[in-house]
Design goal:
The protein is mostly beta strands and about 100 residues long. The chain is about 0% helix and about 55% strand.
Length: about 100
Amino acid sequence: VFDAVPPAPRPGERFRVSVFLSNEGSQAIQLASMQITTTTDGKPQRGAVPPATTTVAPGQRALVFQTPGEILWREGTQSWTMEIVLKTTKGETYRNTLSWK
């Protein structure tokens, strides 16, 4: 689940993105790794980042990532995308994407 503030930034405006994993199951989810890809105007930047939380209990919504500080939406930016890929210790994959155009 992505939480972006503001929901649709404008040129010159600062924004922050928080990413949560909601566990709707009956067993805890053990996170092993996280890959983040941010693409601005078609130019991707990706890297592995340790998740902020490694165990998400049943029924819990846990913060797994938050952008450092506030990012500035630059003048002339046409598109911005963030994709999060979480892998569990059991080999399961959770993926979600936030896109602004």
